[in-house]
Design brief:
Helix content is 46%, strand content 15%. With 142 residues, it is of the alpha+beta class.
Length: 142
């Protein structure tokens, strides 16, 4: 099964904090997005994200700060505000694209041919994890 071989190195490439060490927000978000992707609960791109947000099926929206379209940013922020969807921003679209699975994984487990992703929406977190609790606490405090 070639489809399963590509998923295993992605999870192995995630930097895991040492036992007892608290996880930072971006690492926790990365783990949440990977679990969501594995469970089919991740929607990428403006058009699909807008549809999910308007259906009130969105749990979390992630937006890249380095998007060069100001109208794009305004639209996503307005949709999230109107429909009470939590919004988290990340610094780079390439990083968000890698976390969203928009890349190829080589034999060493490194991401190659990463495609940028300016917006994604989580409609299903998948299974509960420590990372999910950290992200939910971050959203409540901001």
């Amino acid at each position: 099964m070639a489809g399963e071989d590509g998923v295993v190195p992605v999870e192995a490439a995630a930097p895991a904090p040492a036992l007892g060490e608290p996880m930072d927000t971006m690492t926790a978000l990365q783990l949440v997005l990977r679990k969501s992707l594995a469970h089919g609960g991740l929607v990428r791109g403006l058009h699909e994200a807008a549809k999910v947000i308007e259906k009130h099926a969105a749990l979390l929206c992630v937006l890249a700060e380095d998007c060069n379209q100001p109208d794009y940013l305004k639209l996503v922020k307005a949709l999230c505000a109107d429909h009470n969807v939590s919004l988290i921003t990340v610094p780079s679209a390439k990083t968000l694209g890698e976390w969203a699975g928009l890349c190829k994984i080589d034999s060493e487990g490194k991401a190659r041919k990463v495609v940028g992703c300016s917006c994604l929406v989580v409609k299903d977190y998948g299974e509960e994890s420590e990372g999910l609790h950290i992200v939910q606490e971050y959203v409540k405090s901001h």
